[in-house]
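Hello Y.,

Per our agreement to keep a running log of every chain we model this quarter, I'm adding this entry. I've kept the format consistent with earlier entries: sequence first, then predicted structure.
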Amino acid sequence: MTDPRQEADWGELRAAARDAMSRAYAPYSGYPVGAAALVSDGRVVTGCNVENASYGLGLCAECGLVSSLAAGGGGWLTHFTCVDGRGEILVPCGRCRQLLYEFGGPELLVETPEGIVPLSAMLPQAFGPEHLNR
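Predicted structure for the entry above:
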């Protein structure tokens, strides 16, 4: 069996995240963020943060990525990375981990500053769609 961490070109994903970050709308925080993920069918989806004068209405890069995934026909995320304005790897916050779980599940591989880890290690005992069918 092939190691799933070898199925993605992490450098290419980071480059896509950096490109998305370059289009972020972050006039209030000055903290642009870009995200990129590989979909099980081979597509790459991206997102960037979009702030709003009413701070609570801002959208994170992960929200944009998931919206792009849905708008592009859906699919299942297999590999994910996120970068800041310097192009450095970020980890998704708790809210975004939950969002990514919905579309990548516990096996989603996430690039962190400390290496590649499955989402299950970052969001143990996650709540997902399977809990709603009980």
